[in-house]
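User: Sequence recovery, please. Input:
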């Protein structure tokens, strides 16, 4: 005859042995002791009692009792070398406060986002951090906004100023593009080009145009679309007769900037004497090329930490969130030509 399995140890027994309330025992065993400022001695007693009795906490069940999941959803379009750093940023920031970060790569795809939102709703997340762009390439944009309205504590990260129905942080490229354009104009550049995959780049192009207008410049601006920004594709675009007068390239990424430099050198052009080149994203590899590549630096790692801190403050303390702005930076390197900004 099969023996009956031993009855599971209940939280009540752990609390009684530790000499604390069930609420205190539950908080400690689910990792919230330090955040709730429970005395270290009480934390230690609860942990010892749980070990002695063989008790294992069930955070999900505890969350259901408290109407909290202690989970924060993150929908982010990861890309490039920062993906791992950002993933760790979200996860470690959440864990430091006793939360789990459920991180998904949204790939800026509307159908994928819709599916991920359904999963996060099933998890009953306490908050959601989502990266959105506007003007957006997403289909069914209004439907996504409607779905987001059903979730608690939504916080948006975006590159674009728009009338957001949620609080968030705008990581603006406007000032960085202005600084880059000013530098190129001071170096005597007259024929500008934006080079790269232009889908979703409207804000970048508009920002460059605004910068040229603000400087009352008569410089021209060519838009060079490279749907597949490979070395061969970039070379074919820059070999076109109409593009021979270009003397300044603002590339969509640092990788496209590197491909442009190779293509231009193959044509006998000198960088930066004949053509100045500036990338975008300031990847860790940008300063490592034989000609260090100037770039527009994003601050996704800092942004990720700030958003998670604000999200947790909203959940824990009910602090009101707002729309804030964080500026990207223009990082001068040799590919931009001329002396660094601010020097003689």
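Assistant: Recovered sequence (344 residues):
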């Amino acid at each position: 005859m099969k023996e009956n399995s031993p009855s599971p140890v209940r939280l009540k027994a752990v609390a009684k042995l530790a000499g604390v309330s069930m609420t205190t025992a539950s908080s400690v065993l689910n990792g919230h002791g330090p955040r709730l400022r429970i005395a270290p001695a009480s934390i230690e007693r609860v942990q010892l009692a749980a070990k002695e009795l063989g008790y294992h906490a069930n955070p999900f069940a505890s969350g259901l009792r408290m109407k909290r999941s202690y989970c924060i959803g993150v929908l982010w379009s990861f890309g490039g070398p920062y993906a791992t750093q950002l993933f760790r940023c979200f996860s470690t920031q959440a864990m430091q406060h006793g939360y789990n970060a459920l991180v998904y790569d949204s790939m800026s795809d509307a159908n994928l986002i819709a599916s991920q939102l359904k999963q996060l709703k099933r998890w009953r997340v306490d908050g959601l951090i989502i990266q959105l762009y506007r003007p957006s390439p997403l289909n069914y944009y209004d439907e996504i906004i409607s779905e987001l309205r059903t979730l608690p504590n939504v916080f948006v990260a975006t590159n674009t100023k728009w009338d957001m129905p949620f609080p968030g942080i705008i990581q603006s490229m406007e000032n960085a593009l202005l600084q880059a354009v000013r530098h190129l104009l001071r170096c005597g550049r007259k024929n500008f080009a934006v080079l790269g995959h232009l889908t979703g780049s409207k804000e970048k192009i508009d920002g460059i145009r605004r910068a040229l207008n603000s400087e009352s410049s008569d410089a021209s601006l060519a838009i060079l679309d490279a749907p597949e920004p490979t070395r061969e594709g970039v070379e074919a675009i820059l070999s076109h007769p109409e593009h021979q007068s270009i003397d300044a390239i603002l590339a969509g990424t640092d990788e496209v900037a590197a491909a442009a430099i190779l293509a231009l050198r193959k044509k006998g052009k000198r960088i930066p004497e004949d053509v100045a080149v500036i990338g975008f994203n300031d990847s860790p590899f940008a300063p490592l090329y034989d000609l260090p590549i100037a770039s527009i630096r994003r601050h996704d790692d800092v942004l990720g930490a700030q958003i998670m801190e604000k999200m947790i403050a909203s959940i824990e303390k009910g602090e009101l969130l707002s729309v804030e702005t964080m500026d990207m930076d223009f990082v001068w390197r040799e590919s931009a030509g001329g002396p660094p900004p601010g020097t003689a």
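The first helix runs from residue 11 to 18.
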